[in-house]
Amino acid sequence: MFDTSSRTFFKVVIFFGGLSLLAACERILTPDFETELTELNAGQYILDPNHASLIWKINHLGFSTFVGRFNDIEASLDFDPENIQDSSLEVIINTAGLDINNPEFEEELKGSNWFDVENFPQATFASTSFVESNGNSFVFEGDLTLLGTTAPVTLNINFNGGGRNFLTRSNTVGFSASATFLRSAYGLDRFTSFGVGDEIELEIHVEFMEQS
Length: 212
Hints:
The chain has helices at residues 4-29, 103-110, and strands at residues 43-60, 64-70, 73-79, 88-94, 98-99, 122-134, 137-146, 149-164, 171-182, 199-210. It is α+β, with helices and mostly antiparallel strands.
């Protein structure tokens, strides 16, 4: 019979042993995972749509932050890890993919008073210039086109890592990013005078796969 202290000891050993096993499995599944940019392949990458999230946030009358997302996104990345300033990004957002988990309000937002999906089915972003880098964080300027209007937006990017994805068998790089802009700059200014926020905050999480 083990006493209480012995049982506790073995539980601790099993717990940390399990953590070690999980870490070992992760290295087996992605043995070449790198967080150093210069160890990765340069080239053309396309967005993995199954691992892409574009979330937007807006102040709602000061009471809360209203959150929505766009589910239908395409993107291409010209990736140069040794000269990150020479990389470029192009994104297409199909605005009919708007998702706020409220079907009735979704239809209203897709209408002519808001995103006017029928006449403007796509929004686009294209990087235009490199601003600065700090380790694995980068800042790029780009042009966002929405509702037929183009205006500059600053994109703050964090590189998560890259390597060969054992599921897709593709070389993959992962990023998170953020940006803010004023919706009124694109003529999307309804209810700003009634306390609905003008500033839109974007939160982005994506993986790109190298094209063969």
